[in-house]
Amino acid sequence: MSNFKYRRLDKNDVAVLLVDHQTGLTNLVHDFSPDDFKNNVLALADAAKYFKLPTILTTSFEDGPNGPLVPELKEIFPDAAYIARPGNINAWDNEDFVKAVKATGKQQLLIAGIVTEVCVAFPALSALEEGYEVFVVADASGTFNQTTRDAAWERMSAAGAQMMTWFGVACELHRDWRNDIEGLGALFSNHLPSYRCLIQSYMARGK
Amino acid sequence: MSNFKYRRLDKNDVAVLLVDHQTGLTNLVHDFSPDDFKNNVLALADAAKYFKLPTILTTSFEDGPNGPLVPELKEIFPDAAYIARPGNINAWDNEDFVKAVKATGKQQLLIAGIVTEVCVAFPALSALEEGYEVFVVADASGTFNQTTRDAAWERMSAAGAQMMTWFGVACELHRDWRNDIEGLGALFSNHLPSYRCLIQSYMARGK
Amino acid sequence: MSNFKYRRLDKNDVAVLLVDHQTGLTNLVHDFSPDDFKNNVLALADAAKYFKLPTILTTSFEDGPNGPLVPELKEIFPDAAYIARPGNINAWDNEDFVKAVKATGKQQLLIAGIVTEVCVAFPALSALEEGYEVFVVADASGTFNQTTRDAAWERMSAAGAQMMTWFGVACELHRDWRNDIEGLGALFSNHLPSYRCLIQSYMARGK
Amino acid sequence: MSNFKYRRLDKNDVAVLLVDHQTGLTNLVHDFSPDDFKNNVLALADAAKYFKLPTILTTSFEDGPNGPLVPELKEIFPDAAYIARPGNINAWDNEDFVKAVKATGKQQLLIAGIVTEVCVAFPALSALEEGYEVFVVADASGTFNQTTRDAAWERMSAAGAQMMTWFGVACELHRDWRNDIEGLGALFSNHLPSYRCLIQSYMARGK
Amino acid sequence: MSNFKYRRLDKNDVAVLLVDHQTGLTNLVHDFSPDDFKNNVLALADAAKYFKLPTILTTSFEDGPNGPLVPELKEIFPDAAYIARPGNINAWDNEDFVKAVKATGKQQLLIAGIVTEVCVAFPALSALEEGYEVFVVADASGTFNQTTRDAAWERMSAAGAQMMTWFGVACELHRDWRNDIEGLGALFSNHLPSYRCLIQSYMARGK
Amino acid sequence: MSNFKYRRLDKNDVAVLLVDHQTGLTNLVHDFSPDDFKNNVLALADAAKYFKLPTILTTSFEDGPNGPLVPELKEIFPDAAYIARPGNINAWDNEDFVKAVKATGKQQLLIAGIVTEVCVAFPALSALEEGYEVFVVADASGTFNQTTRDAAWERMSAAGAQMMTWFGVACELHRDWRNDIEGLGALFSNHLPSYRCLIQSYMARGK
Amino acid sequence: MSNFKYRRLDKNDVAVLLVDHQTGLTNLVHDFSPDDFKNNVLALADAAKYFKLPTILTTSFEDGPNGPLVPELKEIFPDAAYIARPGNINAWDNEDFVKAVKATGKQQLLIAGIVTEVCVAFPALSALEEGYEVFVVADASGTFNQTTRDAAWERMSAAGAQMMTWFGVACELHRDWRNDIEGLGALFSNHLPSYRCLIQSYMARGK
Amino acid sequence: MSNFKYRRLDKNDVAVLLVDHQTGLTNLVHDFSPDDFKNNVLALADAAKYFKLPTILTTSFEDGPNGPLVPELKEIFPDAAYIARPGNINAWDNEDFVKAVKATGKQQLLIAGIVTEVCVAFPALSALEEGYEVFVVADASGTFNQTTRDAAWERMSAAGAQMMTWFGVACELHRDWRNDIEGLGALFSNHLPSYRCLIQSYMARGK
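The joint structure predicted for all components is written out below.
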């Protein structure tokens, strides 16, 4: 018999780490179309807000070519912990960042960022080493091309990170539609155009 | 010497035809990602509104599986001519539709719709036959797969339709940024995430 | 002003030529998935039957490696003209075939077959030369790979053939849903799984 | 020496779980062509029926936008256990569903559904944790895009699920053609158009 | 009525121009897999030999990095006209080459070479200007990538060149299987592995 | 007989127009990998310099998000005509730009820029209308995605523009290696890594 | 420290299992181009012969639609063990086959076949369970499509099979070019057209 | 709790092995565009130089078709250990090579080469067996096609090699921008055209 333990996202035990979603760096992302990537990042952010997950924002050199944090994220998380790293490439090398993570008291970390093989993979590996359960939100993380992505996924997955995408994250956190049908429905309608169309067809028919 | 005449979009001579952008039909579109397609259709709509182009909406069997007109389009064009066709597959076979087109008094037609090889191609070919200048907004038109798209483009292009995409349409209509920098910039910022990032990086730097 | 004439499919003036849809040759087709290709060919056949279009079947060496005509086509068209060519590669080089075409009295020819650049392109070019209006049903025609397909399309299109796909053919022939909503709906439901789902969702809702 | 144990499908120890193959949700699937996906799902269903595997159907909100269970599945499994979940996203969170699984008395579970990273992955992980042998029927499971699929496969595979496709499932269950050549041949002929052509060529030759 | 004239390959009026199929240049070809490209070039060569078409070989700087003519071509055409151009990039700028073409007395030219947009396109355009009928054997012509290929095809096709592939060329030249079933069958069996399999299955069955 | 006239690039009659190759806009290009695109643009620039072609640089809002002209181009063309357009989207709408073009006295225009469907297509169509021979350098022109590119190519090609790529441009201008083997060889070695390898292998062997 | 043991192919301890490379089944392979696949299979066969590896051929129903063993394999291995299985789908279920494997006395098994997820995966998993070292020759194994291939690779790799391709197999077996430069060079020249070109360029230069 | 240990690149404990980056072999690489691959290899080399990592160069038969070591690498590493292997395919089978590795005294090995499944995979597996930490620089390693790459990655990853790409390597080595902003920035600017554009836009704005 397998000893597999399903480490399932528990909304009471999850923190979200959004690493270097900055306007300059976003323009380096070529493994998603810009529309898809924007939608995925904001969907994850909206999900984090919806589930009231403690969220930590961090950036690298906002004053330089990397550009400021994507403004939409600032708006969604006006009160989030916000660590502007003075130089550490791996966010986990920054004491304030780790303190912020520990301050959440959570053991499950959802991580997304730009670029996948660095800003996501490095803190993911560090957190795994410290015993956290790490869930990579793969479609809210972007990089230069498919080859780079593939290698990054392989490295993180081999280390024990769970590869997820924003929709699965939201579903695993919510568990049961009855907890709030409208809220979850709105989240999906806003970020899944094809699901929105299903809803609209359905609603029209109901009139 | 070539006798080529550049039939250039002139915002005073353009009407927009949005054909069968319905919620059910949208779910048949597989030659774009849903995020990309939604963005392209709304970008065209926002451009049409921005340039105050007369716009005609038409649908096929909104009460049936095809579903209602995409609600966002209704909101953007609350006062547009709106022809719910009782059965004509080619919108141009519908007298009211043709009347509405003629009532605009325009000679240049921007056409987009679902699906490309039918709802776009048929009225495009009919309009070409009647002497209109036809511009297909190819990225706001969707269909079942790439093969179907390729054949549809080939047929329309062979007939003299000009193949364009929403960004080119907006640029050709605007002609000169000095006509309104902020307005055009807002349109692009709302529908080109990569351009939005450039603007945000630029603005941040200006602070 | 353009002199474009919209040569539109007219169900009273169309004949269908199905060229070499044989079981052996079908296994050479690599520019479609087998499921997609089977569906496209049968969809065209069902459309031809639905619109009662005179249909001509022809094959090349059924006794050899090319294999027999796809049995489903035999069943759909039990009484169709059927020319087993003794060796002509271009079906139009076969007198009986041309006679059968002329016997239909139609001026518009829908052509599909295997392989695209030979069994479709050759008779298409011959028919164009004789003044027929030729419509290639591109997704019911298959070949070895995408490169071969691209060249074949280019050659036929440059010669004046119109590139279509089965769904567009059916829509252009039907013209108006009111001619028979159920019949056309059934055709689409049987050959467009995504449309079938729309219908089923709609019907369920109506209960 | 490796300690690998080949957990091989045994038709006496297998149950099939079909999760949320609903008409609305099917329209969200973009990682397969609609023809391919329809064929794969029905092939799995026909295989399950052919091998008389206990099969459990479950759906989520059939009355809403997700739509009813695909009617073809209802027809194939008129007497199957059928759990309409009142809200649980993970079918395994539904007591009736787990009871139905346990009632089969089987230890090997074939799971397919829509969407892969949620409706398939969640119960797969839950079942693995409870000691079941889990086999994902990957080509009868669909989702939004290739990225989402890749992450879902990675997560399930890392947990110990075996990734299979319907054809492999049927072959591993059957073990020996001599158990029933015609039955298995019919299954393949109905769902593998390329194999059907081989058979038809063969049969023709035999005449 | 269209004035289209089907300029059909006539084996009595065709010459073949193989331009710069050299071993060094072959390694620059990235728009085909090496196996596919090798097969296509040799298939064209074997077809030219089979139909006894006058064939002209030309190379550019065989002593330099471009490398020698592919040895297999030398073997197939031991007596062909062979023009080692001292520097002309467009073979048609070389008097000896044009003389050799004229010496064939043919009006239809089959052209293939490396790289497509230069070694094929330049002489193709020159020959078109001089009134020859030009047929590009597109799959026996290679270049750096798909973008470069697409542009080259577009330019040649717009100029009136007919885009073909080796299999279509062979079929159009042969016209009727009865002219020599075994010869054509052997050509196909040697260069179409999938057709070879059909033949082998057929032959086995016949035993 | 065809009336085709081969409008062949003549280095004495060519001017080069580089339109909006700015650092911000370059980050919008997603139809090439960044390495490929950088190389293509600089290859065209180096070719223009090598052939001493009059070159005109133009930009749109260098002070804004579009960013400055790519610095490498400034260095290659320190004395080129340079028109910073105050707002015209179509460079041809700018009098100074047209004057600069006319001042070259050339009839053949090589055009490249960002983005293809606007900054390249608009002046290309304008120049065609005025009787210039227009050659689009397609691989030194970039845009948002493949769909946008395809539509832009189709529109320009239908208008009579010739689609080329930088390597073909260099070859057609040079005509004969004997004009300068080393110079052309250096150009290719610097911008075609695969050709560079051929040369290096050859040189090593010669030692 | 890792406990990784490099299970390296040792030509004295390897047997080759070629499973169901039959002419009918070959026509089902769609995850390779026919040219590529034919080359890969014959390259593996030639390598097996070159290294004098004991090779076992097995087939399934050669008299039926699956067709006979590919004749080229028969010619390469006239004296190989040859098991025509009467019905076992997993070759390892056939006693004669297992006996033949055991009779070789080898512990390392190179396995290739059609289709990957069945004819390769099943015996691979069985052999792993019995303690053999299993090396899948992935590019000499084909299946219906990329999805099916991906799942099959995942399953075998998770079980401990090593994924290889024919070129790596040949290199790992040979170990040192000095064992026989000409023999290995001939193998590569015959099955790697790009390497053949390198050799031909080199040889020409040496003259 | 997981026992995962993050084996992180430490610039004091890393050696770089560049295996068979020769001019002939480079022309066999088809899983990257030539521009991308050249850039990746030189980026890795520049990073190795920047971090002063001991680097070992090795080649196989430079006098033959494989060609000389890429000259750029010779220039970057004039004093590097350089082992011209007399015949060992696996560099680790060469005593001098292993001695050179051991002489560095490092435990972490960055390996890249041509072709991936042989020249990279073989020494990677050997080094893993001897207890080294192995990091494959996947985008500076090339091979014949994507299938071959996929199998090679799978094999190395299963053995415990970490899959990385050059940018991640540089970032993990550098750890903190404050160690040298300009140096790292120059490295990125030289090898990431998209990042270079960000910097140039930023610098222009700063003027």
